[in-house]
Every structure is written in structure tokens, then in C-alpha cells.
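[scheduler] slot 2 assigned
[scheduler] job type: sequence-to-structure, two independent chains
[scheduler] chain ordering preserved from manifest
[runner] begin chain α
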Amino acid sequence: MIKHLLLSVFVAAAFSVAVNAQCTPNTQYADSTFGVWPDTTTNLPCAFADNASGYNATIDLKTLTDTAVSVVVFGTNLDLVAYIEAFRINSVDGLPAGFNYIPNQSVWTNGGATPNFTAVQGCVSIVAAQSTLADIIAANPTGIDYPLTVVVDAKIKNTNNPLANAVISDAWLSELTSIPGITAIPVEGYKLRIRPVTTAECGTTAVAEISSSVSIDGNYPNPFSKTTSIRFNSSSTKNMELKVFNMVGKEMMKSNFKAVKGENSYTLLNEKLTPGVYFYTLSDGKNTATRRMIVSAN
């Protein structure tokens, strides 16, 4: 039985005097099976240039051990179970100069052995010195927002299909270039917000924030088998694009539609998604928000 223990990336705000200190996984999330991408609604905490400690935000995660996927191998479409041995962060794209990301381990290796891997915890610190924040604010006095993309890679130990094992075994997603659609998973929607002075709320800049332009309330029901409604808010009437990806980063569905200002609901009809965990992105061409969903067998 597929456990569907998820790579759970979600933010826990944490500031430290020792900016370059390595993070420690938060035991609060030891039993969590939440998410496969960052919680972009919660987002990273703000960075304030007047904070003498600089910036230190922690992203906590819990790995995935196996998942159902559909792939094309040697021209044959296969529905299979992929057993995941390890995870790593390939990059955090969009960080301004002077910011660094520091994982507590270069690779998070699952416990146990295939097909009975056990999930592990990990964390990543995003850090910068106060001087870096001051330099950024000197050039952007009212503050600035940097969209981030966290590129997550997974190592497939093997699968339950001998044909697939010929090309997938002991390979990272980023290395499986011979299989169409498989790639390291780009998790979009985080935003690094830098402001001049510490306040209770992050506030806005002259540039509209992602969260005020597109925000996803989630989909209901979740899990679902046939249909689910994705509920979101839009700051104006605009064209939207919805994409659904499987757990190895392959695009499974894409749809374009028009949203109205305010509350919206988009009904997703499942015609080809097999039971498993997926993530979806909602974009207006400039801003993107990401959430997860689960397709059940019935």
C-alpha cells in the first residue's frame, strides 16, 4: 500500500542571532504528512533591514517514500509505483546577492529499504547578514519582493515495474532526461519580502505582491476521485492558467480560463489522473500560487 508520506515543505518563522547557524528539524512536524510544496499562503517571514541579527528563515520538510506515477518508457505508457530513496534541494532560484540557503544535510536519505522506506525530516535555512539587507534597502527604500523557486530533486531507487527499472533505478529526477516530462520539481509561489523597518505586518511595496493578486483557498473535496473545486481569489478580472503536475514533475493537465475580481471557483474534472499525490499551480502570467491535492481510487 502506498503510504503517500509527502515531501512536506512549509514555513516555520525562525530568527537567530547566529545567522549562519545550521537549522534543526522541528519535532512539531515529525508526524506530519502535509504538503509537497511550500505553503505559499503562509510564505516566508519578512526580512527587516533594521534587524541587527540579519535574516534567518527556516523551511522544514518531511520526505516522500513512494508515489504512483504515469511515465512513458521505451514508447510505452506505464502506470507504476516509484520508490523514493532520497531528496535534495538543487537550488533556490531568485535569491538576491548576499542571501544563501543552507540545508541541514546535502541529501535527505529515507530510512529502511525498498519497498518499505520510512520518511525522514530535514530543514533549510535562508540567511543573510544585516549589511546585505541594508544594501538592498539603500537601492529600494520602500522595500522589494523577490519571487523564489525552490527546485526539489528526488532519487528513485526503483519501481514495481521491471521495464521501468531498466532506466529509472538509482537515478535522480534531474538525471532522467531520456524520459519525457520528468524533471526536478520547481516549487513556485514563495516570495522573499524585504522591508526597511520592523513592523507587525510585512506591508506592501510599490509593486503588487503575489498574495494580493492570486491566492488559493484550496480545493474541495480533497482527496477526490472525479471532480474537485479549486477556490481562489483574484485582485481583478484576468486570464488564468491552471497546471497539474505529478510527483516527478511531469505536467499532467493544463487549462486556461478567465477569473473575475473577487472569489472564484474552478471545477477540475479528472479524466486521466491515477490515484496519487499531485500539485497544481495557478498563474495569471506574472504571479503564481501552488497547492497540493490527492486523487483517491473512489
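[runner] end chain α
[runner] begin chain β
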Amino acid sequence: MKIIFAGTPAFAAHALKALLDKQFEIVAVLTQPDRPSGRGMQLKPSPVKQLALEQGLAVLQPKTLKDTDIQNQLINFKADLMIVAAYGLILPKVVLQIPRLGCWNIHASLLPRWRGAAPIQRAILAGDQQTGITIMQMDAGLDTGDMLFKKESLITTSDTSETLHDKLAVLGANAILEALTLHQENKILAIPQDGALASYASKLSKEESQIDWSKSAQEVALNVRGYNPFPGATSVLNGTPLKIWQASVCDGPAGLSGEVLQGEKNALIVACGVGALSLEIIQKPNAKALPATQFLQGFTVKAGDRFVTR
């Protein structure tokens, strides 16, 4: 089976490596153009491109798949299947039809829940206890195609978007291998999605990461986990913008939303709309993220101070 692989970040690189390890024939790799990165803003290849070049694979980095030139290049590979994982470009209908078996997507949710760009983060923000991987036959809609294979994963109370991403990257690599095996055995079953059960995982924005302390402590804790590592849950205390990287629900006396209930004795406890939150890892601008114990040694906080949004 000849496969074109389309993907960009580390999540996709896991799947590409799994396919290569199992000796699948990758005839070409599509990935996003190199992006400026780091302090020097030098162009940096994607994790998928780095892996593909190490393996001597043909790499294509078009800015769009709408041009006939790139479409003709894809046609010439005579691929049986295109496997897509976090690629980042829309596949026009004509491209979806180029491989003999069409295009399969490795999607990081249990469809039809969390179609869209940020399924991992939205699952945590919503307080979901379970997520997983769906291998999907791509169509012209946004993650609306038939489901071919699913693997489930629990979301633990300590999972952040980063840790859940890493778990699902491994799960996605395993899932695509299992789906391909089922296809080879003529055991794959395409199941249409129930659109009535669909939800949309919109892309994250920096604006939404500002903590609303009028929410319950449980909701704010989910925000801290869901926005870690990007864009980071933020709030302002005594004029200083802070990022909160880890927090947990705790007992505390009643207080105004965002009010510091305790800012000493190695604990920073903040009142929420319902309940209280213990801030455990905190970061000031241009400084390292620190445990509350160390943070309080260099940042004066007292009971009655109040966190606010920008």
C-alpha cells in the first residue's frame, strides 16, 4: 500500500514514525512550511519534516493545496491512501479524491464530540472524563466523515493539555496501525457520525485564558489545566500579570471572587465564585515558573489582596 502522509507537529510525527517502523511505504510527506522560531526567529522545520528528512522521504511544503501544480504532484505518486494528522491545511475535495482509498484522519477526540482545531484542550476545559482517538474517513466537512476506528483514553484529574496530548499522540499512532490492519483483513466498518451529538472545539485564544474568578473553583482548576501549556491561565495581582500553571481545589473561608484568603505559610489560596483554589505553580513575567513556596519568598502577597483580569 502506497501512503502519502500529511502532518506537522509532534502529534503527527508519532504516527509517521509508527508507520515507518512497521515498514509501510510512505511515498511522500506533506507538512507546513518552515516557521520562524526561537529568539533569533530563524526558520525551523516541523517535527514531521525533520523525521521525514532523516528517513530520506520526499517532503512537500505547499502553502495551499488548491493549486493544480501540487495536486498534479500528488496524483503522480499514485497513492492508495493519504493519512492526515494535525496537518493544518484544508484539503479540497479534489485532493480528498486523489488516493484510491481517499484520506484518513487521526483525530484526537471521540467523534462526533469535539470536531475542530482544539479537541484536547476543549475536552479538559469541559471537564470530560474520557476522550480518545478516532480514525475517520475524511470528507468535505469539518471532521464530519465516517468513523472507521476508535480507541478510548481516560482523562485523569492531573492531566493538562500537554500530558493528554502526549498520551493521545501515542494512542493515535497505535490506532492508525490497528485501523490499517483491520482494513487489510477486510474488517473495517465505516460508521456515520450522529450530527446531533456533535460539538465544536474552537481554536484557543489568549483572551479566553484570563481567569474568571467568579466561576467555581472546579471550573477555574479546569481552566488552569486546559490552558497548560498554551496560552497559560492568566490573572493580575497587585498590578503584576501572572500565569497559573498548576492549582487545586481546597477548603477556605468565604471571600470575594479573586480575593487572596491566604498568602503566607507556603500557600496562596484564592476565593472563587464557589469554593477556593490553592495556586501551586505560578510565573511572573520574564521569570521561571515557581512552586508557591518559592514564589511567595519573592512576591509580597497578603490576605485581602485581590486577583483581577487585565
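[runner] end chain β
[qc] chain β: The mean pLDDT is 96.
[scheduler] slot 2 released
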